[in-house]
Amino acid sequence: MSDAPQDVDEGYIKYDAEWQVGPPPDAALVADLERWRAPLYEAGLIGYDDELRVGFGNLSARAREGGLFVISGTQTGHLDTTSGEHYALVTDVDLDANRVSSVGPVAASSEAMTHAALYALGVNIAAVVHVHSRALWDRYRGVLPTTAEDVAYGTPGMAREFGRLWRRSGFRESGIAVMAGHADGLLSIGASLEEAAGRMLKLNSAR
């Protein structure tokens, strides 16, 4: 069995998605996202579960102009390479209303709300990486900063959980957290895509 996700509802958007079809986001930022997505995909941390028929894993970077951040589109995990057609610009997030607004060729990832909450923690957070690995999840759950088991992915509750970890655990220092209520899910942040992706790749290579 691979390190694929085990949630039966994995990959499905749980927030109110206001998606407007539009052109691809910032080409230079998309190129940087693909540059760091590639090794994550090669390591099996982003990919596709054949049994559940869903993609898993996503990454984003703070927008350089306009909007909030650029994120990989929903259900793009199966792609070995990506381009501008596979990313969306998130323009607004309302946590209380459980709503995410985005524009682009594809709708934003189901984890867009969680990404938004992480960017809100501080201006020094410029990139977010979300991956799946059963081996890493089993090894580091409860060891690294870990979200509550009863909080599901892609919900306002998960977004608020990262605020709790930021204030009350070592997440601010480690830059990596485990999502106990989202089977196999881990997440990393960084001041750049290189730092956010590098943290996850380093953790994976050390297992």
Q: What does this 3D model show about the protein?
A:
- The protein has a single domain (about 15-205), classed as L-fuculose-1-phosphate Aldolase.
- The chain is built from six helices and ten strands, in the order E-H-E-E-E-E-E-E-H-E-H-H-H-E-E-H.
- The protein has helices at about 25-40, 110-120, 135-140, 155-170, 170-175, 195-205; strands spanning about 15-20, 45-50, 55, 60, 70, 85-95, 100-105, 125-130, 175-180, 185-190.
- An eight-stranded mixed sheet has the order 1-7-6-5-4-8-10-9, sandwiched between helices. A two-stranded antiparallel sheet has the order 2-3.
- It is globular, with a radius of gyration of 15 Å.
- The model is unreliable at about 1-10 (pLDDT under 50).
| Sheet having the most strands | 8 strands, mixed
| Sequence of secondary-structure elements | EHEEEEEEHEHHHEEH
Q: How much helical structure, as a percent, in the residues? A: 25-40%
Pairing-aware structural class of the strands and helices? alpha+beta
Supply the CATH superfamily name: Class II aldolase/adducin N-terminal domain
Name of the CATH class: Alpha Beta
pLDDT averaged residue by residue? 89
Using only C-alpha atoms, the radius of gyration works out to 15 Å
* Shape call: globular
In total, how many domains does the architecture comprise? 1
Report the count of strand segments. 10
**Poorly predicted ranges:** 1-12
How far is the first residue's CA from the last residue's CA? 17 Å
> So how many helices?
6
